[in-house]
């Protein structure tokens, strides 16, 4: 006989106690769940207070934000006047001021192409992605270098600052991933010659530091060219960075290929697919999804490694800050310049990291979500 036939109804489920859900529940479970956690939480809050308050005071409360020169910095905090006065140099380098609009157009176009990729329901994301990979580099080349469409020509020696950092990292990312994928496929090839060439390439470039690669590209490569031949310094650096990063990318992709079960290869063969079609339609889509964290980690390392180009005379954002610090008119402002550089790098690296996490969730790679 059911409870309804007996004349009584079961009581509705009560909501969980307010102390076990929401922010209060999270605090009780993660910060105050045991005497040891309570002690560690108190000690951690004390350290944050003792270290955080002076930092915030230096960065915000006692800082100087407006003025014309260093004499305006009298409060004892950070002298952000330095960053404000040299901001254009940190972003554009020696690029002609009258042509800043070309870089600004590219910055806006870059944001227009990237932001929709972070919105799951945004339409035509596929075509925007293809334009980002194919069309955007062409538009950037025409606008930055000039010499066509009535645009004044600007030598690459005048490129610098954040713009140069983005150019180097973008070129490295766009070319290192496909080249690294081909190297990974070649390393797993059944043809001994192809496998040996790919293994030799990967181990050679992974066995030397990037600084040595940049020195070789800048100093040694011109020695092998014919007399009178001119090879652009920026192009040399880009080739060296792409070769170096593609070797690391190859190992990341190879890890994803090895994680694919043998049954997937057999299923592709059973469907009558050739090597390239099976790789492009069956194997690589699964392998690349598995190694999204490794790929993005390599991209982040590439973005930060762009600072090494300063040793061959290219003024990226870090080199621009260091050059501005040497100005006698701005003494004792090194900390402000380096903090500005660190924040700029953190914004881009954190953005790549968050995008990769969202991409993992949308593609459902099967990993445990935390």
What does it look like?
The chain has 370 residues and is mainly α. It folds into 2 domains: 18-61, no CATH class; 70-95 and 154-363, MetI-like (MetI-like fold, Orthogonal Bundle), CATH 1.10.3720. Helices cover 65% and strands 0% of the residues. The protein contains 14 helices and no strands. It has helices spanning 22-30, 35-61, 81-92, 100-114, 125-145, 161-187, 192-206, 210-220, 233-259, 262-270, 275-290, 292-305, 317-325, 334-363. Helix 9 (233-259) crosses helix 11 and helix 9 packs antiparallel against helix 12 (292-305).
In short:
With 370 residues, the chain is mostly helical. Helices cover 65% and strands 0% of the residues. The protein has 14 helices and no strands.
Outline the biggest β-sheet: none
What is the straight-line distance between the termini?
45 Å
Could you tell me the radius of gyration in angstroms? 27 Å
Helical content class:
55-70%
Total number of helices: 14
Identify the overall geometry.
globular
Question: What's the structural blueprint in terms of helices and strands?
Answer:
Layout: H1 22-30, H2 35-61, H3 81-92, H4 100-114, H5 125-145, H6 161-187, H7 192-206, H8 210-220, H9 233-259, H10 262-270, H11 275-290, H12 292-305, H13 317-325, H14 334-363
Helix pairs in contact: 3-6, 3-13, 4-5, 6-7, 6-9, 6-12, 6-13, 7-9, 8-9, 9-11, 9-12, 10-11, 12-14, 13-14
